[in-house]
Amino acid sequence: YDAPHFVNELYKEADWRQKLLGISGELPALSRIPINTRTTLDVPMIGRSEAVANLEKIQGDVLISGQPGSGKTYIATDFANRHNGLFVISDDTTKIANELRQKTPGVLLIDDIHSKETLLTNLKHMRTQLKLDFRIVGTSWASGETAVKTAMGIGDTSVLRLRELTRNEIVEVIDACGLKGATNLLKREIVNQSKGKPGLAITLSSLCLAGDWEKVFNGDSLYDLVTS
Fold first, then answer.
1. Residue 109: strand, helix, or coil
2. Which of 37, 101, 160, 205 has the largest count of CB atoms under 10 Å?
3. Residue 40 and residue 103 in contact, taking contact as beta carbons nearer than 8 Å
4. Which element (helix H / strand E) includes 117?
């Protein structure tokens, strides 16, 4: 048997993978990829240069605040890639502690931190208990900002609030998704439905690319997204 044969067998067989290589096959607790990535489209950052610059100026723990679809996770991912950052995608404190010792990230990112108060408390405790030097960057809906600031122990100067993009900037986002040749009517509908939120524009554009342009044009896709 050649090497590719064993690679394929080990990929499929968890027991042998564990016995021979000591690899469990479980998802890590800390990952460079956020768990709630909504699209696989590779779209450049548009209209957020000022936000990125302001984020660089903030010291210590940071909260990125904005409406759903405003691009909070996108900016957090960009920040993580440039600052040895990892997303916390598990609430297993033992796994998190072990991976903190092993990977020594400079930044830990918590998506939707407004719904993860216990995780935040545990991470702050680990940072003190294990004498580690990582920053915490959380993303939150604007409605949960006040409570999160208190839980994180930060003030207004440590909050990055994302503005809505202009209509022209949303058109740039749509074009970057691969819909540059779409009709003006369809583009206008996506712009109207997005309401300045680039993440929502990308989601609607990806649905059009998948063939659901009629549902997007009629507003059915937006209704499904809002009610899901």
1. strand
2. 205
3. no
4. helix 117-129
DSSP 161-211: EPPPPPHHHHHHHHIIIIITTS-HHHHHHHHHHHTT-HHHHHHHHHHIIII
Q: What is the token pair recorded at 200?
A: 């929502």
Residue 55: count of CB within 10 angstroms of its CB = 18
Q: For 113-142, what is each residue's pLDDT tens digit?
A: 999 999 999 999 999 999 999 999 999 999
Q: Are 201 and 194 in contact (CB under 8 A)?
A: yes
Instruction: Measure the CA–CA gap between 207 and 160, rounded to whole angstroms.
Output: 29
Is there a contact between 63 and 156 (Cβ–Cβ < 8 Å)? Answer: no
Which three-class secondary structure state does DSSP give residue 159?
Answer: strand
pTM beyond cutoff 0.90? no
Sheet of 85-88, strands arranged across: 30-31, 85-88, 107-110, 135-140, 62-65, 159-161
- Strand pairing partners for 88? 30
Phi first, then psi: give them for residue 132, nearest 5 degrees. -100, 160
